[in-house]
Write a structure and sequence with these properties.
This protein is mainly α and 191 residues long. It has one domain: Hypothetical protein, domain 2 (Endonuclease III, domain 1, Orthogonal Bundle), CATH 1.10.340. Helix 2 packs antiparallel against helix 6, helix 2 packs across helix 9 and helix 8 crosses helix 9.
Amino acid sequence: MEVNRCPWCQGDALYKKYHDTEWGVPEHSDAKLFEILILEGFQSGLSWITILRKRDDFRAVFEQFDYHVLAEWPEEKMAQAMQNPKIIRNRLKIQSVKTNAKAFIEIQEKFGSFDRFIWGFVAHRPILNQFHHLKEIPPSTEISEHMSKALKKQGFRFVGPTICYAFMQAAGMVNDHLTNCFRHPTQQHEQ
């Protein structure tokens, strides 16, 4: 029996798997949160499926997203990344990985963990939206705007309000599965 899913993931098995198992699931691992934040920055201006298909290549190029290693990344590694056709070769986005790794570590030192800092924007509880149609989902919210400003103030790059909202969705800080999707909590209670 085919289940109801959000329409954006239809037509691609990888997209469906991501939708079914990751998107909207609360994430609290600093390592995973860093990966999501970096990948959302690379996604800017592109479709998420493009990033998803290259995710393993991004992991290989960017040291499995080990922010301690990336904070010390030498210029030659960045130059190699710029030549790698398996990832998105945008110089500013590649340079931002090192910048963001340093800022990420600084936040961990100030707040104890990135998780504690970032989940504070939603009072440490996921926001459950009740959207019926994709067009109802906003590209950004007041919370993602505050998050963007706070991250920029800490030295992050490629963290505009829209990127921050996509990060919130991917990290499960907000659940934007449509109400008829089997991943929406109201549907899960009915099954």
